[in-house]
Specification:
The protein is an alpha+beta fold and 174 residues long. The chain is 59% helix and 13% strand. The protein is built from 5 helices and 2 strands, in the order E-E-H-H-H-H-H. The protein has a two-stranded antiparallel sheet with strand order 1-2. Helix 1 crosses helix 2 and helix 2 packs antiparallel against helix 3.
C-alpha cells in the first residue's frame, strides 16, 4: 500500500534546534505503508464508550475497580434521561409565575437552573467515579436537588396550588 500526494508541502520540525525547521514543497510524493502481519490488537474501550450490555458484563465480572466505574456509568445513563422530566416540572412551576421582569428574567432563571444542573451533575459524577461520594448522591444528586426545587416551586406558585390542594386533599402542601 502506498499513499500518493500531489502539490503539497512538508513541514519538518527539529525539537532540539528549532532554528533548523524546514519547509519543502513538492509536486508529487509517494509514501509506502508497511503493514505488519498478524492480528490487529484490540483497543481497550473506556467505560463511557461501552454499550450498556458491556457495562452490565463488567459489573458482573468481579473486578472491583471496573465494577465501581461501570456502576457509576450505568447510573449516569439512567439519570440523564430522567432530567428532562424534572426540568419540565420545574419549567411549568416557574412558568406559571408572572414576574415583573418579563421574558428576560425567565431566560436568566432557566439559564441559571441549566448551568446549576450541569455543574452539579458533572461534579457529582466525577466525585462518585473517584470514590469521594456515594454513587446515588453523586450521580443522582443534581436530579434530587432539582426535583426538590420543582416541588418547592409548585408549592409557592399561586395558580397551581389550588389544583394540587384539591388533588391531594390538602395534606401534602399545607
Amino acid at each position: 500500500i502506498q499513499l500518493h500526494f500531489t502539490n503539497g508541502t512538508v513541514y519538518s520540525r527539529n525539537n532540539v534546534e528549532p532554528e533548523k525547521d524546514s519547509i519543502s514543497h513538492f509536486g508529487t510524493l509517494d509514501i509506502p505503508i508497511i503493514l505488519q502481519p498478524g492480528p490487529v490488537p484490540q483497543k481497550i474501550k473506556r467505560t463511557v464508550d461501552k454499550s450498556t450490555g458491556e457495562i452490565l458484563d463488567d459489573i458482573s465480572a468481579g473486578d472491583p475497580e471496573m465494577y465501581h466505574e461501570s456502576l457509576v456509568e450505568l447510573n449516569r445513563r439512567m439519570a440523564i434521561p430522567l432530567a428532562p422530566i424534572i426540568f419540565s416540572f420545574l419549567g411549568v412551576a416557574l412558568g406559571i409565575r408572572t414576574p415583573r421582569g418579563g421574558r428576560g428574567s425567565g431566560f436568566i432563571v432557566s439559564l441559571a437552573v441549566s448551568i446549576t444542573y450541569f455543574v452539579l451533575f458533572a461534579t457529582g459524577s466525577t466525585l462518585s467515579k473517584n470514590g469521594v461520594l456515594p454513587i446515588v448522591l453523586g450521580v443522582w444528586g443534581a436530579n434530587i436537588f432539582l426535583g426538590i426545587l420543582a416541588l418547592i416551586s409548585f408549592r409557592y406558585s399561586n395558580r397551581i396550588t389550588c389544583i394540587w390542594l384539591s388533588l391531594f386533599n390538602r395534606r401534602f402542601f399545607i
